[in-house]
Amino acid sequence: MIKIFQRLGYQFKEYVLLVILVIVSLISISLSEKPQAKKLKALAIANFAVLSEITESVASIFFRDVSVEELKLENAKISLQLSKLKKVAAENEELRAMINMRDTSSSPLIPVRIVSKLITKIQGNFIVNRGYSSGLIKGMPVINHQGLVGLIMDVAEDYSVVRTLQNSSLNIAVTLQRSNVDGILSFDGRDLVIKNIPTTYDVKIGDRIETSDFSSLFPPSVPVGVVLKKETNELGLLHSLTVRPFAAIEATNNLFVIGIVPSKQVNHLEMNLLKKP
User: Fold this and answer.
1) Is the domain of 112 the same as that of 58?
2) Which of 26, 125, 152, 267 has the greatest number of beta carbons closer than 10 A?
3) Which range of residues forms the domain containing residue 146?
4) pTM, whole model, 2 decimals?
């Protein structure tokens, strides 16, 4: 240890000597009462203050690790809280819209909440927190405040399974509102499509699509989506329409079940068509 101090003293002896001389000079100046010495003392004090401030700033760079980590931790906590608040705000907006819809709808609406989302590439299903004890029946339509979401496919006492529009096993009779063109809406694993529409029919991009009068599963005029894209087959005889749904299906958390009892005979036939082969 002594050798280390000796080596440091030898390497920095000039600086040590300079510091000693400066200290002695400052002491001498501070003890002097001459005007020139007082001016020099004031200048020295000012320079020393500036130097101290710079030294503290430089030192803070090397000794601020703890405070930086604390700030990062606080920032992470605030970010999580902000994310929760945004989620709550979005849910509040969704619930407000649903309340307004419930007030203006002529059909009985049963509010449900999604408790699980079972989504694969071609099969989209939700589990909701109500079952036959709340009056739900297989075949009842499911909507949110934006439009059609799906159909009740299985019912237990307190829970039900909703088959969403994004399910290749669900086919829906729909109508283009402007031109009354009818078609069958289905999911191809990527998009909602209406196939085999004759090119002679009046179809435009942006046309509004709603449920048809010809289905017993869904009440008529439930909003479904709009025509996003129109493609013609190789022979030029038929259109295939890509549909953008009104309902943000993957983002929704609260739904309504339309409390209508489907026609048992027609419903049985249509439900059989929805079953997998």
Assistant:
1) no
2) 152
3) 108-277
4) 0.59
Whether 143 and 222 have beta carbons less than 8 Å apart is answered as: yes
Q: Tell me, what's the pLDDT at 38? A: 57
- Per-residue confidence (pLDDT) for residue 252, from 0 to 100: 87
Q: Is the pLDDT of residue 265 over 50?
A: no
Per the domain annotation, does 100 fall within a domain?
no
142 shares a domain with 259: yes
Q: Could you tell me if 29 and 114 lie in one domain? A: no
Judgement on whether residues 18 and 134 belong to the same structural domain of the protein:
no
- Which tokens hold the place of 258? 């339309």
Nearest one of 94, 90, 98, 95 to 258, comparing CA atoms: 98
Q: Are residues 175 and 42 in the same domain?
A: no
Q: Are 213 and 177 in contact (CB under 8 A)?
A: no
Establish if 178 belongs to a structural domain: yes
Taking 90 as the threshold, does the pLDDT of residue 146 lie above it? no
Q: How many domains does the chain contain in total?
A: 2
CATH code for the domain in which residue 217 is found: 2.40.10.340
Q: What's the rounded Cα separation, in Å, for the pair 230 and 26?
A: 89
Residue 103 lies in a domain: no
- Per-residue three-class SS string for the chain: CHHHHHHHHHHCHHHHHHHHHHHHHHHHHHHCCCHHHHHHHHHHHHHHHHHHHHHHHHHHHHCCHHHHHHHHHHHHHHHHHHHHHHHHHHHHHHHHHHHHHHHHCCCCEEEEEEEEEEECCCCEEEEECCCHHHCCCCCCEEECCCCEEEEEEEECCCCEEEEECCCCCCCEEEEECCCCEEEEEEECCCCEEEEEEECCCCCCCCCEEEECCCCCCCCCCCEEEEEEEEEECCCCCEEEEEEEECCCCCCCCEEEEECCCCCHHHHHHHHHHHCCC
Asked, for residue 80, whether it belongs to a domain, the answer is no
Q: Which two tokens stand for residue 268?
A: 């049985």
